Amino acid sequence: MLEWITNTIQIWNYWGIALLMFLENLFPPIPSELIMPLAGFTASPYQPGGAKLNVFGVFFAGLLGSVVGALIWYYPGKFFSERRLKTLADKYGKWIAISSKDISKATRWFNSQGRKAVLIGRLVPGIRTVISVPAGISNMPLLPFIFYTTLGSAAWVGLLTYSGYVLGSQYELVDNYLAPVSKIVLGILVLAFVGWVLKRRRKRTRS
Length: 207
Known about the structure:
Keywords: Cell membrane, Membrane, Transmembrane, Transmembrane helix
Membrane topology: Multi-pass membrane protein
Structural class: mainly alpha
Family: Belongs to the DedA family.
Protein name: DedA family protein
Number of helices: 9
Distance between the termini: 55 Å
Organism: Amazonocrinis nigriterrae CENA67
Oligomer: single chain
Number of strands: 0
Shape: elongated
Largest sheet: none
Order of helices and strands: HHHHHHHHH
Strand content: under 5%
């Protein structure tokens, strides 16, 4: 996969980066943790031969692909019921590593956090791809969805791009550094969700 990602960026430059990040949103097994650091490395002046791409161009190309890819998941949620999407995920999701459990997890998180779940969810591996689905199911307006998606994606893409730019040829280490951080963030989100559930139960008990 690394060779394919490298060749795509070398051949198509910014359009290749946008395409890869678009596909990463559709097919989670394609890791943004490898795409954007590698793209950032191509903009690093420390690589042999100097920078081949502009770091800002790399960032905006990755952001464009990420936002457009998120829209692809938003519209199925808008036009299909949650039950129907779960059925489809269990039947065909194995091809893109998405299951009904993933949709349920993203939906619970969205219901507990509201619109800001789209922003935060874009920063969490395992949720960032499918957080668009409950946003569509809940009929979240398109403009706020794009706004929060863009903010969250910009933070994620910017972090990965800068990491590859700074680490240079060691860009593959980005995934090693992000893995524990991602687990911590996910743990915080789980605790926040549990707190929300307990708070709602207390309200019901009082009423």
